[in-house]
Design brief:
The chain is built from nine helices and no strands. By secondary structure, it is mainly α. The longest helix is centred in the first third of the chain and has 31 residues. The chain is globular and about 60 Å long.
């Protein structure tokens, strides 16, 4: 059991990283990764929402299945995520106004962040138990954070290197994102070999 949980966690963290491998959650990845503080703040917010959303949506899915209402899954999950984001937004605004202003429009966009919805649906599609789903969401959230912080560091270094004018702005951002994404392909197969799956 512990080996399977470890495999799920590290798979979501490195091998199946939602941003760099599955390309979900790209909007905040590109928009909030200009500095490390904003990237970290957004990542913590997304991780919290992913974890709590999974904790709520997994039992909700069981209820939907019991009453043959599975066709409402996406709507129900989005509503849960929207409520969680609104609550998180209120907490951040009250306790960290500087983080709230630096995240700007991207904080409410967590509601439509396909990585958050993707985790909740993936847990159901993979047939994970409740504990496995929570571990999966935690690994996915920390993987999101890893991608955001690494990319913020890369962006700071690349932009400080005075690139040619033709690459400034979005072209340089996308090239940097591609290089960071390529670095994660090297983790393929490692998790399975470590945990003997």
């Amino acid at each position: 059991m512990a080996a399977k949980l470890g495999a799920i966690f590290f798979s979501m963290l490195l091998v199946n990283n939602y941003v760099l491998v599955k390309f979900l959650g790209i909007c905040p990845f590109l928009g909030v990764s200009r500095n490390i503080k904003s990237a970290t703040g957004m990542s913590v917010a997304v991780t919290i929402v992913m974890f709590i959303a999974t904790a709520v949506t997994w039992p909700l899915e069981q209820i939907l299945e019991k009453y043959d209402l599975v066709f409402l899954q996406t709507i129900a999950f989005i509503m849960v995520i929207a409520v969680l984001v609104q609550l998180l937004e209120l907490v951040i605004r009250k306790f960290s106004p500087s983080l709230y202003s630096s995240l700007g429009v991207f904080l409410p966009l967590i509601t439509t962040n396909c990585a958050v919805l993707g985790v909740t649906i993936l847990n159901i599609d993979e047939g994970y138990t409740y504990v496995e789903s929570l571990v999966c969401s935690l690994g996915a959230g920390l993987g999101f954070m890893l991608a955001m912080v690494l990319f913020a560091i890369v962006r700071i270094k690349v932009e400080a290197a005075r690139p040619p004018k033709v690459f400034k702005g979005m072209p340089l951002t996308l090239i940097s994102a591609a290089i960071v994404s390529l670095s994660f392909t090297g983790f393929g197969g490692i998790v399975e070999n470590i945990f003997g799956l």
